[in-house]
Structures are given as structure tokens and as C-alpha cells.
Automatic annotation (TrEMBL):
This is Tetratricopeptide repeat protein. Residues 509-644 form the AAA+ ATPase domain. SMART domains: AAA, TPR. One of its GO terms (molecular function) is ATP hydrolysis activity. The keyword Secreted does not apply. Pfam families: MshEN, T2SSE, TPR_19. TPR repeats lie at residues 107-140. Keywords: ATP-binding, Coiled coil, Nucleotide-binding, TPR repeat.
Length: 768
């Protein structure tokens, strides 16, 4: 068969599967029958495969068209369920099998149920079914092997469900039953799981939430052992897992609060430290901490270490205290702080990675000042990175007033530090040298790049732009690329029901998912959180971005380059030849890209992109306006998420208030109608509304950070029909509301009711 025909057939097969998956059995059959005629007799395997699928689908059609009758015997219904399972109609098969299992706890039924659940990625449930199967298994010498097979499956499912301790127990039991190669494999598995369970038991929660994969856990343990760091700090520094998440995991595991080293929140050295030798505490990894409420806490790396608690009690001579958990490095830092060893500007290992030839330093920097300037320049970059800033602004002030440095964090500029007059020019020159710019040129704007490595080994890029300002001054603006870490889906502020719905579409094997909104509405963050959710070693994920702002381990990220013709459309074509499972295209601007995206999602890939549209329903009309095929689009689309960022009420100073009649009316009016969940006066009276006040932490504005608001449209049959008909926006919106969508404004108002923001801010970012 020639290449073209082969790829045509492959694509059509995928198309047929897509139909079958959506329950469009007739359409699927039609494609298969076409293909059966197209494939010649010589392609024996393929022809048989197609024939088998046609049989399955025909059988399935018989099954679904028949009324479910209670008179059907157990065997008949089991047969039906197995036909459904064979045809990969797992959901329907599960429904039937669950009923059967209730009637008769037959191990066979449980085994099939487990296989269906596993096929849908529900490993925890699958493991539970296998446990049931084993419990009801009539064990005899003849069916011993079958029993062992079930145990093997159980162990595998438990491992996939991240229940390592349980999986370990099953493997240990199983080992005795196995021989030869299989026994060796089981032993290797046991060794692997033992290491994971012992070395990172405290991180169980991260495994369970799928934030940490077993292979990363293992790698982190190895690095920790080699470098002598704690596994927690390795995960934070090397694998980009947020400290908050690690803290939550530790707190849940040890059932006590998590403490993090933040110098500005410390209340000084506790009395009980008088005369205590620091080496004892370093050895025990325990440090006392004075708390706001006047009480004392012991901060420790392992709160289960009762011996250490006893010794600390003796050495410090304390009786009453609370236990808090912290990562080892933070405890050592706290001890450094108490014993005066904490130094910020000592930074001998800081380095710049040379991109081009190193530039000779110029005479403008006085000798004695030079190292201070170098260190200060590095310190600013490192601080900005650690605080999650996206940009650094160095702004020359007029006269002899030096310069001020501001960081843009969460979209807002925040003052960081001022620079004395005598350091202003050297500092700006230093950044120009780092970026390979001409330091003598001060009257024209220049731009360049710095590649920087922090003391903890993180490498990031900084785009540098200099701009001449009045009085022969210069400003420097630096954008940190790849400095922002990917957030998890839980962290981007989706309401629980939207989160669940979004997760459901992310778990689909293929289709199109769009995130839409104006520039600066947090689309990239959301896309990366979505990719983070599905990022597994078993998946190949390609992304094309401009610029690459977030770097994620496990993704293959490509920076598009319009000047040399490396456009989104071109990168996408290259991706399709590079065996992808998931593709993310940073932005869809033209028809060519839109068309290619839909093709890609119909041929078995999960495809993500963004569009500059205002709302989810509007996106449909926009894409159809670009001339894409409405049938293909309706088939491919899994969901459209529109979003905005509104200012968040400062959690430190916001003040609850009881709304007036007029304010209640206003909220209800702005919310408008919703067919499934109208907003009532009662709803508002039961909620606690807050208003902004202003404190030092929010610069007296009353707002700090931002809250995302979302509108998620997922198509049902009605919406697919409307798409095919190219229905007007308002019809699509109404159908979407009936299908459970909330408009941006409605989502925002629901977040006003939970006290995250206020109506004024919601109104400021969305019309509807
Ligand atoms: Zn405040």
C-alpha cells in the first residue's frame, strides 16, 4: 500500500473511533464499511481488524437499541456488558457491570469492572474492584494461576493509584508465588516501592494528588542522597514543585502546622536559647520559635522523632510548646539567623552563563565599588525570580536622587528598593554588560538577553531593554522568561464545579480545548496548569509559545520566531510529524492555524490553543467566521474556557459588611438569569460580603493579587447542532447556560459571594 493511502486510512480509522466514542455508531459504521472496501485482501490483518470492529459496533447497536428488561437473565446481561467492553464503550459497560456485581458478587464481574475502570484511568476504583474479586474468589489448586493473575493486576492498579504502601504489601505476598523472570521483576518492584515509601512517606499526599510521579520521587531521593539536601528542597529547587504544596503535604502527613522561613516575620531569638550550644540543635534538626500569641513552638524536620523532642525539651528546658514541621533547610536557616550567621550578600557562587564572548568591563566602575555592584545586580535578579516577578523596572530619578527598582508581581508594579545616586550608573552599566549591550551608547534604546543562574542552580533568561530618559538618564526594563512556575489546576481559582468539568475534558484522549480572553487575562497560566495536570512521562507533549514564559519539566517547548518564518502554523506541522500525544499552540491568529488545529484534534491528538475573543460563545462564531468546517469543529471541540483577572480583596484587611436592599438588587440585576441556578436574595443574605479597607500589606489599596473568573463552555448535542448551523452568539450562549455554563460575570459574582472580590472589580473586567 502506498504511504498516502496508508495515512489516509489511518486518519479515517481515527475519525471512526471518534464517532464511536461519542456514541455516533451509525456514522462510525459507515466509515468502517467504506474502509473495508478500500483495504485490499493482501492487508489481511487490517482487513480483519476492521471487520471485527464492524461486528462489535453492530453488536453494540443491537445492545443499545434493545430496551433494558429486568427479565434478562444474569448471563444475558453479562454477555451484553462484555460486548460493550469489547467495543470500548466502557461507561455503559461499567453501569451494567455494577448492577450485576450488586446482584451477585462474582469475581469475574469484578474483574471485568476493574478492567473497564482501569481503561478509563480510574485506578483507585479498579483496585477496589480487584480486591472484591479476590475476596469472592473460590480458591482451589486448579485455579491458583488465575488467582495470582488477579493479585498481579491489583498490585499494578494500586501502584497506578499511587497507593504505594498497599502495592508493596501485595507484591510481597505475590513474590512467593512467582518464579524466574517474573520473580526478579517483582523483587525489583518491591525494592523500588520500599525506597519510595520509606524515603518519601511524608510526601504521600503529593503522590495521591498526582503532583509527584513515582519516577520523579525516586530521582529526587537519589539527588537528595548525593547532595545531602532534603528531598523536599530538591523537589522545590530542581523539580519546581511549589513550597506551598510541599508544606501542605508535610502538614497533612505529620498532622501539625507547616512553618516556612521568612525573615521579616520572625519575632527574635527566644529566651530558652540562652547558653544552648547550637550544634545540639543542628544535630537534632529542631529549633525553638517565638510565636505571635506569646507561646513557643518547636520547629522540626521530623515531628515523629520523639527522641529528638525529648532531648530538645531537656536542652532548652521547656515544658509547653507546639510542634511545627519545616523543611530541613529552613530549620538550619533559622538557626543561622539566631546565631548570627545569615548573610544575604555573600554570593560567591553566583555566575552568569556566557552567551557570547565575555565583554570587557569598562573603566566606569570604580575598583572598590565593582564587586558590590555585581553582587547587588545579581541579588536583584535573584530576588525578583524568587518573588515570582514577571518584570523588573529600574527607573532613574531626576537630580541626585538615584533610581528606584520596582517588580511587577501578579500584574502590578510594587516598589522593591531604591538605589543610591553613586550606584545608579554602575548598576545600569552592569546589566548592559550582562546583556552584551554597548555601555557607551546611552542615547539610543537597546535590547539584549541575560542567561542567569541562581545560587540554588535555577537557570532563567532575562530580556533586557534600555530606554533613554530625561536628563541623560537611562531606564532598564527586564522581563524574566521561564521564571514563573507552572501552577496546578487547583491553584488557578476555578470554582469546584468548573474545576471538575475542566478536569473531565482534560482526561479525554483527543479533541480541542481553547482558552480565550484578552492579553493579560492569565491564559498562559491556565494552559500550563492544564498541561501540568496531564503531564506524565507516558505522554509526549509539544508546545509552541511566544514567548516561553513558563518552563515545565516534561514538556517539549518551542519558541516561535516570526522573523525567520518559524510561525505557529509551521511549528504545528512539524509537531504532527513528531509523534505527539498533546499539542499546545500558544495562539491561533489565522485561518491556516485554526484549520490545522482542528485537523490535529480529529486525528487523535489532544490540542490546546488560545484566541483573543471576549467570551466562550463568541469564540465559536469567530472560528466559523475564519472559514473552518463547522462539522469538524463541532466534532473536535471539547471545551472553551474564557477568563479574566479581577483584583482580589486584600485578605489581611478586607471587612465584612451587610449589603443594603439596593446593593442586593444590584447584584441580582448584574447576575441576570440562569436557567439552572438563579441568584436569589436569600443566597446573598446567607453569604458574607466584604469591602476593601487598606493596610500596609496592600499599599493601602485594599486589594492584593488577583482572582481569575471563568466561563467554561462544553458542547452537548444541542450545542453541536447549533455550531453546525452556525447559530448566532446569543443562541449558543443560551444553550450553553442550559448545559451548565456560567457567564464570566456570573462566575465573578459567585466569587463576590465567597468574599474573594467585590462587584466593582468584577464589573471592571467583564461586560457580560
Ligand atoms: Zn490590606
Amino acid at each position: 500500500m502506498n504511504e498516502d493511502l496508508r495515512s489516509y486510512i489511518e486518519n479515517r480509522l481515527k475519525e471512526a473511533e471518534l464517532y464511536a466514542k461519542q456514541g455516533l455508531v451509525d456514522e462510525a459504521l459507515e466509515v468502517y464499511r467504506d474502509l473495508r472496501n478500500l483495504v485490499s485482501e493482501e492487508e489481511n490483518g487490517l482487513k480483519q481488524e476492521i471487520q471485527k470492529r464492524i461486528f462489535e459496533l453492530e453488536a453494540f447497536k443491537g445492545v443499545v437499541s434493545e430496551e433494558e428488561t429486568p427479565q434478562d437473565s444474569f448471563e444475558e446481561r453479562l454477555k451484553k456488558a462484555l460486548i460493550l467492553k469489547e467495543g470500548a464503550f466502557y461507561q455503559q459497560a461499567i453501569r451494567l457491570l455494577e448492577d450485576l456485581a450488586q446482584e451477585n458478587p462474582n469475581p469475574e464481574v469484578y474483574r471485568h469492572l476493574a478492567e473497564c475502570l482501569a481503561a478509563l484511568g480510574q485506578h483507585e476504583k479498579a483496585a477496589n474492584c480487584l480486591k472484591q474479586a479476590l475476596r469472592h474468589f473460590p480458591l482451589s489448586p486448579e485455579n491458583r494461576l488465575e488467582f495470582v493473575e488477579l493479585q498481579k493486576k491489583l498490585a499494578e492498579e494500586l501502584e497506578k493509584a499511587y497507593e504505594f504502601e498497599q502495592a508493596l504489601l501485595v507484591y510481597q505476598k505475590l513474590k512467593e508465588e512467582l518464579l524466574g523472570e517474573e520473580k526478579v521483576q517483582a523483587e525489583e518492584k518491591i525494592a523500588f516501592l520500599q525506597e519510595l515509601v520509606q524515603g518519601a512517606a511524608q510526601l504521600k499526599f503529593l503522590f495521591k494528588e498526582k503532583i509527584l510521579t513515582p519516577s520523579i520521587g525516586k530521582e529526587a531521593l537519589e539527588i537528595a542522597r548525593e547532595t545531602g539536601s532534603s528531598v523536599e528542597s530538591v523537589l522545590i529547587e530542581k523539580f519546581g514543585i511549589s513550597k506551598d504544596l510541599i508544606g501542605q503535604a508535610l502538614s497533612r502527613f505529620y498532622n501539625c502546622p507547616f512553618w516556612e522561613f521568612k525573615e521579616d516575620l520572625l519575632l527574635g531569638k527566644p529566651q530558652c536559647l540562652e547558653g544552648v550550644k547550637e550544634s545540639f540543635l543542628r544535630q537534632l534538626l529542631v529549633a525553638p520559635l517565638a510565636k505571635d500569641d506569646g507561646r513557643l513552638a518547636l520547629v522540626m524536620a521530623n515531628p515523629f522523632d520523639l527522641g529528638a523532642i525529648e532531648q530538645a525539651k531537656k536542652i532548652l528546658q521547656v515544658k509547653e510548646f507546639e510542634i511545627m514541621v519545616a523543611i530541613r533547610e529552613d530549620i538550619l536557616k533559622l538557626l543561622d539567623y539566631y546565631y548570627g550567621k545569615l548573610e544575604y550578600f555573600e554570593a560567591p557562587e553566583l555566575e552568569i552563563l556566557p552567551e557570547e564572548e565575555p565583554v570587557e568591563e569598562e573603566e566606569e566602575l570604580p575598583e572598590d565599588q565593582e564587586s558590590v555592584v555585581v553582587q547587588f545586580a545579581n541579588y536583584v535578579l535573584e530576588e525578583a525570580y524568587n518573588r515570582g516577578a514577571s518584570d523588573i523596572h529600574i527607573e532613574s530619578l531626576t537630580g541626585k536622587r538615584g533610581a528606584q527598582i520596582r517588580f511587577r508581581i501578579d500584574g502590578e508594579c510594587i516598589p522593591f528598593q531604591t538605589v543610591p545616586y553613586h550606584m545608579k550608573r554602575p548598576l545600569i552599566s552592569r546589566y548592559k554588560i550582562m546583556a552584551g549591550l554597548d555601555i557607551a551608547e546611552k542615547r539610543l534604546p537597546q535590547d539584549g538577553k541575560i542567561k542567569f543562574r541562581t545560587r540554588t542552580g535555577k537557570v532563567f533568561e532575562v530580556r533586557v531593554a534600555t530606554i533613554p530618559t530625561i536628563e541623560n538618564n537611562e531606564d532598564v526594563v527586564m522581563r524574566i522568561l521561564g521564571g514563573v512556575q507552572a501552577r496546578t489546576l487547583e491553584e488557578i481559582g476555578l470554582r469546584p464545579e468548573v474545576l471538575e468539568q475542566f478536569r473531565r475534558i482534560l482526561e479525554m484522549p483527543y479533541g480541542l480545548i481553547l482558552v480565550v480572553g484578552p492579553t493579560g487575562s492569565g491564559k498562559t497560566t491556565t494552559l500550563h496548569a492544564a498541561l501540568h495536570y496531564i503531564n506524565r512521562p507516558s505522554k509526549k507533549i509539544w508546545t509552541a509559545e511566544d514567548p516561553v514564559e513558563i518552563v515545565q519539566e516534561g514538556l517539549r517547548q518551542v519558541q516561535v520566531h516570526h522573523k525567520i518564518g518559524l510561525t505557529f502554523a509551521r511549528v504545528l506541522r512539524a509537531f504532527l510529524r513528531a509523534d505527539p500525544d498533546v499539542i499546545m499552540i500558544g495562539e491561533t491568529r489565522d485561518e491556516e492555524t485554526a484549520h490545522a488545529l482542528i485537523e490535529a484534534s480529529l486525528t487523535g491528538h489532544l490540542v490546546f490553543s488560545t484566541l483573543h475573543t471576549n467570551s466562550a460563545p463568541e469564540t465559536v462564531t469567530r472560528l466559523l467566521g475564519m472559514g473552518i468546517d463547522p462539522y469538524n469543529f463541532a466534532d473536535a471541540l471539547l471545551g472553551i474556557l474564557a477568563q479574566r483577572l479581577a483584583k482580589r480583596l486584600c485578605p489581611d484587611c478586607k471587612e465584612p459588611f451587610t449589603p443594603t436592599e439596593k446593593e442586593i438588587e444590584e447584584l441580582i440585576f448584574e447576575y441576570g438569569n440562569h436557567p439552572l441556578r438563579p441568584l436569589t436574595e436569600e443566597d446573598i443574605r446567607q453569604a458574607t460580603l466584604y469591602r476593601p479597607v487598606g493596610c500596609h500589606r496592600c499599599n493601602q489599596t485594599g486589594y492584593r493579587g488577583r482572582v481569575a473568573i471563568h466561563e467554561l463552555l462544553t458542547p452537548n448535542d444541542e450545542l453541536r447542532e447549533l455550531i453546525v448551523k452556525a447559530a448566532p452568539v446569543h443562541e449558543i450562549r443560551e444553550a450553553a447556560l442550559r448545559n451548565g455554563m456560567f457567564t464570566l460575570k456570573q462566575d465573578g459574582i459567585l466569587k463576590v459571594l465567597t468574599g474573594e472580590t467585590d462587584l466593582k472589580q468584577v464589573r471592571a473586567v467583564c461586560v457580560r
